[in-house]
Amino acid sequence: MDSLITAAAQALAAGDPLGALKRVALRDDAPALALRGIAMAQLGDFTRAKELLRKAVRSFSPKESVARARCVVAEAEIALASRDLGWPAKALDAARATLEKHGDRLNAAHARYLEVRRLVLIGRLNEAERLLADFDSTPLPAPLRTTYELMVAGIAIRRLQTKAARAALARAERAAGQANIPALTAEVESASNVLNTPAARLIARGDERPLLLKEVEVLFTSKVLVVDACRNVVRDQGAVISLITRPVLFALARALGEAWPGDVPRHRLLARAFGARFVDESHRMRLRVEIARLRKVLRPLADVNATERGFVLVPRDAKEVVVLAQPVEDGNGAVLAFLADGESWSSSALAIALGTSQRSVQRALDSLAATGKAQFFGQARARRWVTPPVPGFTTTLLLPAPPFID
Question: Which residue range forms the structural domain that includes residue 269?
C-alpha cells in the first residue's frame, strides 16, 4: 500500500473525510475507490458512496478477498446509515467470516457491530444480545469500543435497565474521549440525552404527566396494573398480556384504564373501539362479545365487571390502574417514532422495522405527509421519508418489538 493510500486511510480513521479525499480524489485504482467511497459516506452522500464501493469490489482481484470483504462491510454500514434494512445480512455475515479467517479482527468486530445494530433497530433484542454475549471489547481500539458500548447501552435502554445503560454510556464517553472523533462524541451525547428526556406519559385518575425512562422502569416493578399503550400490552409485577394483534381489545382495555376507578359508558366504549357514531342493537351485541373476550384474556390480572351504565376494570392484585402512553400520540405514532430519529427512511425499511406490510406503512406516510408531519424526497424506489424529531422527547425507545399498525 503506497503512502497516499496509507495517509488517506489514517485520515478516515480520524474522522477527516476531506483530508482523505485530498489524497485519493483523482485516483481510480481499487484501494483509492474504496477509500473515496468511505469518505463520501462520511460526508453523507450515500448514493455516490455505494457506487464507489461496488466499483472497488469489482476492481479488486478474486484473490484479494480481505479487501473485498472490507468493502462489503463498508457498504453494509452505508445501508444501515441510510436505513436500507433490506440489504442482504448474509453478505455481511460472509464478509465477517472472511475477515476473521484472515486475522482482521478489527474489521470483523465492526461487521459484528453492524449486525447487532441492525437487530436492535428492528427490535430483535434477544438475537442482538446473543451476538454480543461472547464479544470481548477489551482489545478493540477506542472508536470500536465506543460503538460496542453504545450497543450495550441501546439494548439496556430498550430493556428499561437504566442503571446498566448509564454505566455503558459512561464507558462509551471515556472511549469516545480517547478516540477524539467529534462525530462519535456527539453520538454518545445524543444517546445519553434520552435518559433525561420524557419517554412516555402516565395517565391516572384523569390526570397525566411525563415520565423519564427511569420512572417507567420503577412503574413496571410497582404494584400497579399498567395498560401499556407504547407496547399494546397489559402488565403487572407478575405477568404481561400482549394485545398487540388485537387492537379492539386493547382499545377497550385502554378506555377502561383511563377511566379507572370509574366505569365507562357503553356508548363511549363503542366510539373508542369501533368508531361508532350511533348505537344500535348490532353494536351492543358486538360490544358484549368483545367485552367477553377481553374478560377472558385479562382474567389472570383483572376482571371486567358490568355496571348500570357500562363496564369497569377491577384489578386482582394491583392497588391501582394506570395507562402508559407515548409522549406524543398520533394515529400513525409508530411510523412517526422511527422517522423521528432524524434519518431518512424508505417505506420498505419501515415495514421491516415495524413488522407490517409496506402498503400499511405507505398509507401511514401519506397521512403524515398530509398533516405536514413527514416529507419525502426522491421518486419511486429512491423515495425517502424524513421528519424533524419532536424536541424534548425520546423516539423508539419504548418500541422494542414491532407494534401493530391498523
Answer: 200-325
Whether 276 contacts 287, CB under 8 Å: no
Q: Is 37 part of any domain?
A: yes
How far apart are the C-alpha atoms of 52 and 41, rounded to whole Å? 10
Site of grid cell 425520546: 394
Q: In sequence order, what are the beta bridge partners of 325?
A: 201
| CATH number of the domain within which 13 lies | 1.25.40.10
Q: 202-232, pLDDT tens digit by residue?
A: 999 989 999 999 999 999 989 999 999 888 8
Residue 144, all three cell numbers? 470500536
Rounded to whole angstroms, the Cα distance separating 156 from 132 reads 12
Instruction: For residues 392 and 188, give the distance between their C-alpha atoms in angstroms, rounded to a whole number.
Output: 17
For residue 377, how far is the Cα from the chain centroid? 22
In the chain, the number of structural domains is 2
What pLDDT is recorded for position 403? 39
Average pLDDT over the chain reads 85
Q: What is the pLDDT of residue 170?
A: 94
Residues 6+ apart with CB under 8 A from 222: 237
The full DSSP string for 324-393 is: EE-SS--TTHHHHHHHTTSS-B-HHHHHHHHTS-HHHHHHHHHHHHHTTS-EEES-GGG-EEE-PPPTT-
CATH number at residue 309: 1.10.10.10
- Write out the three cell numbers for 235: 402488565
The residue to which cell 479467517 is assigned = 101
| Reported pTM | 0.72
Residue type (1 letter), 141: P
- In terms of Cα–Cα distance, which of 205, 256, 206, 200 is closest to 229? 200
| CA-to-CA dists, residue 334 to 201, 261, 338, 364, angstroms | 15, 29, 7, 9
Say if residues 340 and 355 touch (Cβ distance below 8 Å).
no
Helix axes 266-274, 247-259, angle to 10 degrees: 140
